[in-house]
Every structure is written in structure tokens, then in C-alpha cells.
Amino acid sequence: MSTPPAVLAPIVKGLHHVAIAVESLEKARGAYEQALGLCSSPIEHVANQKVNVLVLYAGAQRIELVEPASPDSPVAGFLAKRGGGVHHLAWKVDDLAAALARLEAAGVRLIDKAPRPGAHHTQIAFVHPSATGGVLMELVEEPRAEHASA
Asked: With 0-12 CB in 10 A as exposed, 13-18 as middle and 19+ as buried, what is 17?
């Protein structure tokens, strides 16, 4: 079972997804869809992060392939420094604003101090890798039921 770093344990509800940075979604998707037999959703452009995202499903587990949509995307910088591979782990939270307030009050270094839009109508925020053992962590709040049909 995946467990979050101790700093996140009181607020997370489980693993949401693992994000993998790739140069090209079209080139990478074959290994996941054909070779592994994973199902995928349509590619989504996330403008505020300057990325394109392909969500793949293995049962209830999600893997997100993330490709830069512009040269100044943070993912483009990641790929230039490290090459393709695991970019971040994302954790489910019930109330993202409350989770961020709790982490900030505890002195945890945050990249985002307020929720922002993510893929599939989620709200997201990133925790700085220096606070989580060197791994970039994302917190994800799914759309609330009353907003899901909108």
C-alpha cells in the first residue's frame, strides 16, 4: 500500500496518481495502451500548467503522462534537466484549501499556497520537494458532487 510522507499523512486520503514526464504523448502512449493494455481518457490541455495530459487506467489506479505544451512549461524544464520519468506523486485530499492552510501553519514549504485548476476539473496544489524527501508532491481535490455535472 502506498503511504504518504509523514508531513502529509494527516490530510491525504490515498494515492490519486503517478505522473510521468514524457517528450511526446503520442510516442509514449503505445507502451501503456498496447503493451500493458491500459485504458486511456482523451488528451487534455491544462493551460495554466502549459502541459498536455493523458490519463491511463489500470483498474482504479491512474497514471498520468504529462508532456510540455510549450518550451517554457515546467515539465519542459524537468525533461531538459532529468529526461523522462516519474515527475510527481499526487495525493487525494477532501478539502484542498484546508490542507494547504494546515501545511503552511506547520511550516511546510509549498509551491502553491492556494488551489488552482488541474486536469479533469480538479483543484490542485504542489508541495515543494524539499518538504517531502526530494519528491515533488501534488495534492488533488476531486470536483464536489454538486459541481460534477456542470
From this structure: buried
User: What long-range pairs does 41-50 form, CB within 8 A, spacing at least 24?
Assistant: 41/120, 44/119, 44/120, 45/69, 46/117, 46/118, 46/119, 48/116, 48/117, 49/73, 49/74, 49/75, 49/118, 50/74, 50/75, 50/76
Please state, in angstroms and rounded to a whole number, the distance separating the CA atoms of residues 98 and 125: 12
Question: How many domains would you assign to the chain?
Answer: 1
pTM: 0.86
**pLDDT tens for each residue of 15-38:** 999 999 999 999 999 999 998 999
95 in a domain, yes or no? yes
Instruction: Decide if 5 is inside a domain.
Output: no
Which residue segment(s) compose the domain that 140 sits in? 14-148
CATH number at residue 73: 3.10.180.10
